[in-house]
Amino acid sequence: MHFFTCCALLLVVVTLPTCFVQAGPIKDQCMAAAGITAQDVANRHETDDPGHSVKCFFRCFLENIGIIADNQIIPGAFDRVLGHIVTAEAVERMEATCNIIKSETTYDESCEFAWQISECYEGVRLSDVKKGRRTRNHRE
């Protein structure tokens, strides 16, 4: 199940030109800052704890695409960043589920917080993608 959720989220992040024009360079910048590779990110669910560097990659990425700031989810960020792609029900579900996650103010905690947010956002399903936004290989 995680594979398909991951594919749906990556489809959203990587292929759409609107809000994510900078997602590729941001991803690369954040991987370099965290000292990890794309393979490290891809392998993140192979263990219970993907490691501090992978978690900090997600902090960098989510901050730079405008989802989190100052160890908090920016109100309305999920809708602003992904609302044009996913259904209103998906936005409501993600905001209700993920916006309750809180963080302490330390750097280490901010990485853990971002990891928890990314895990929560992986709850987006392919069926949440608005009709007409799916690739021809991903139809229901």
From TrEMBL:
Pfam family, one: PBP_GOBP
First and last residue of the signal peptide: 1-23
Molecular function terms from GO: odorant binding
Key words of the record: Signal
The UniProt record lists the keyword Mitochondrion: no
Protein name: Odorant-binding protein 56i
Organism: Drosophila melanogaster
